[in-house]
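note to self: dont lose this again. the chain is below, predicted strucutre after it. 70 aa total, dont forget to put it in the shared folder this time
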Amino acid sequence: MGLLAGPLEVMPWVRQWHDEPDPNFGQSCAEAYDTYLTTQRETRNLTEDALRAWLPPQATRGGRTLRPPN
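---
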């Protein structure tokens, strides 16, 4: 879900800065990314609201277990 939430978050800027059609591809980068994001979201039955509400899991303190000195 995080891999879709990130691109959704930056789509307003992608649309703002990359909305012009690319003559080599016949569409804009914004349109291509929007289509990809919509397809992936619908395939997984996710709404845009669900992606916007997503938060990464809480970080846990990991590491090695320290042994007491001998």
